[in-house]
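Repro case for the chain-ordering regression, as requested:
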Amino acid sequence: MTNHYIDFRNADVILNMGGNVAENHPVSFKWIQAARNKGAIFIHVDPRFTRTSTKADIFVRLRSGTDIAFLGGMIKYILDNKLYDEFYVKNYTNASFIVNPKYNFDDGLFSGYDPTKRAYDASVWVLEKDEKGIPKRDMTLQDPRCVFQLLKKHYSRYTLEKVTEITGTPAADLEKVYKAYGSTGTPDKAGTELYAMGWTQHTVGVQNIRAMSIIQALLGNMGIAGGGINALRGESNVQGSTDQGLLYHIWPGYLPTPQAHLATLADYNKTTPASKDPRSVNWWKNRPKYLASFLRSISGEKATKENDFGYSWMPKLDQGQDASWLNLFDEMYKGTFTGFFAWGMNPACSGANAGKVRQALTKLDWMVNVNVFDSETACFWKGPGMDSKKIKTEVFVLPCAASMEKEGSISNSGRWMQWRYKASNPPGESKPDGDIMYELFKKVRTLYGKEKGAFPEPILNLKWDYETNGHFDIHKVAKEINGYFLEDISEHPVDKKAYKKGTLVPNFVFLLDDGRTSCGNWLYSASYTEAGNMAARRKKTDPTGLGLYPEWSWVWPLNRRIIYNRASVDLEGNPRNPKRPLLKWDAAGKKWIGDVPDNAVPPMGTHGVYPFIMKPDGVASIFGPGLKDGPFPEHYEPLECPIEKNLMSSQRINPVIKIFEGGLDTFKTCDPRYPFVCSTYRVTEHWQTGVLTRWLPWLIEAEPQMFCEMSLELAKLKGIKNGDRVLVETSRGKVEAVAIVTSRLKPFQIAGNTVHQIGIPWHYGWLHPKDGGDSANLLTPTIGDPNTMIPESKAFMANVTKLTKKPAQKG
Amino acid sequence: MAEGKSYFIDTTKCIACRGCQIACKQWNQRATEKTINRGSHQNPPDLSNNTWKLVRFSEVAGENVKWYFFPDQCRHCISPPCKEVADGKAKGAITQDEKTGAVVFNSKVKMKPADFKEIREACPYDIPRFLPSTGIMAKCTMCFDRIKEGMLPACVKTCPTGAMSFGDRKDMLEKANKRLAEVKKVYKDATLANPDDVRTIYLLVDDPKKYHKFAVAENTIGITRKMALKRLFQPLTSLRHMIG
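-- result from build under test --
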């Protein structure tokens, strides 16, 4: 999130689209309720009427997979009705920037498309720069080649009529939402958007969020209290996991994982984002300091200037390699690798096209499964359709501690790093994950010492001293993440002060690129300093009254609670909304009052620095040339969709998505055998694959079985009554479920055709309970967003039929 | 009437998260029941010997669908009809705490099934439940053990949205009436359910029957037709008890 949970209560209008906040983040609803108590409007846009919808002031429906059409219509409405914040748009976004003449868009394709490669040459999308390297602008926003005019042109096609045709949302409903949300374009009003997998799990997932970012930039809602783009993350520490670089494409602190052709440190640092504009801070220019410090944390004493701080010992990607989930399991299925750690996950139920995942597991020589309970992954070899006699995989099951049985931090959606204490000892032989990793690696290293191995340096040189009295010490890890001075520094370049070797750095501003500092994750630097464990703070003071609580836990970066907050003030540093003064420049004291400023420089004025300091140009991107599928979001249909043609252009699907073809990767579109749009979702009572919740009796009691929600109209069509057992199938698999026939789902009118939609939760698995049902992911397709490869679990085509036989007993 | 404790349950804030239902189970360590999905998210399907707090889901079909949530529990009546009947069956089976007004089933007093049937039918809200093998009755205790120590009932403590409140009756009535006035601006048919007769006061925005068959009492509190008839003959029975 750019903002945080408590900040929701500062909003005048809250839009929950691409998510179901009351059901999946019930505790956060407290803050939404607080906003409603003050008169805020709560809007819920969803294909279904859910528990969230019951609390909405405005509820409207849309067909799964049509969010860009919906949001494109909102962009047009905001522009046509001049609801945008003109000052903000001109000064804090790239709306005035001139786009080079090679950029064009025609009939669903941006310029630079190579159909044989299914990829764009993004160099044709660049912004024009003058001879000094500074972006050319037209501050009147009239130049036909400026971003603002190109934006207008692009979304002129998203008329109410066209959007209604595509989404199935009645025009009156569209206008209701557009008007209410568009009302936050004035400086005294704040609009916030809450989304989750409903937006991300599509082949246009990233562009969905881009569309909303454009809306927030137009309305001046970024960097203010009650505004922002707010992802409701699906796991209590998934924010922490991406921050710490658990995904293949990033190192801790979002440093990009190098590809092999970047063979030296100098090569890598050549790719550091650059800007010639003196008014753009371009904070990423500091990346070499963070990289050098990270490498020193990895290899400790062994990392020296002479050996590029051990850069050559770090694993790299092949050029162009994408090792994300769908590709990874595809390679596993092909037998490319034979060992697998399934750590705190249940891929047999969580992976898209789970049937393929389960088959892939049979190809392994060995698997280590670390979890709190038994799972369909650990037991894949005795699952439905498996003949264990034919499976050679050796499975090791390591029981691990649950969250209250270990100490450490959790970083929530709002970037709040909250320290947790251990409440009780784990049972039996279970250990915390940290202890398992620590001891496992020690043993691996001992073996490398004895037997050498193919490339021993990275293993033998890894700094691995995070123990106290022979036991793993998580505080040592937390401190390493913060970073240390590795030598005495008599006069630090930043503040001219002296710092002693072995002391913790105050924050990332003090990190150096010459190897004199270490830091496991620059973003988290300042979280554990000489003053103590900042994440463990629990003071309830709130000086601004805006719910920032600056001394409760610690927030990255630098304990800044709302990112880009200098966009909340005018050029002189005065809050544009005096009723919610997030920041205010104190000219006498030469400092900012309120939140931690982003960043600590004087007000922008006419020559000062722009507020979006992480962007190379220092301003919010309305035109976004850095994505694989285009600088403006464009509506494409999901891979499997109910209509033959995309009503917006001749490009039916996202032109740059990777198509997996053949074998188990089937997909069917406009196939009469799979006539209904199917979506997957969650309920309050269960979590993820149910790998933890299905073993808890009070939760299973409340929500015992796989169900399929459908409209009264569809049920009538298929002769299904409420409570009947049904079979839901796609070309990839089938699951049994109980039908919930409800008027909370209704058919859509799409371009004159009736399109039915059904929905299923993905919380169940064959292992337990025996009559619970199996995973929804047996149905989902192997297809993902081109930028992130997140699977399109929210819109695919299925059939549902009544089952007349009794369900077979499982296992 | 103004004394003792009360709950105020604002259904306009309830998101049916089931936190209250499960908190009750956990605090009171009630066993789970084997459930199946019968085409509804409501599970277990009804209150029982083991389920004392139940979120009821009620869908009202239509162009603009409505979905009402009713976190059902004992009303802890001011003049509990269950107690009136039980007093004539087994001494001390049901007590009403003087200080808080909590109506508590004594888990050590056995009840005959036929007598229990009468007690259950006396309740306008169909709350009392029973385990025939032990003869013990069960229902919400107002978390008597918690409130004695100045803590909130488990369900109230857990509720994330503020739908559930608990406190001195005077304060809860004030809160309920204030909220009713606010809500009536949007929902003309909003009411409080039997606020003068019960300590668990629900705020509803529509016809109570759309929430739950027993959301409000059908007749004057506690006097069902059966009971009214019984009352004619009761003096002899209570006299016998008084004599001992």
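Ordering looks correct now. Chain A has a mean pLDDT of 97.
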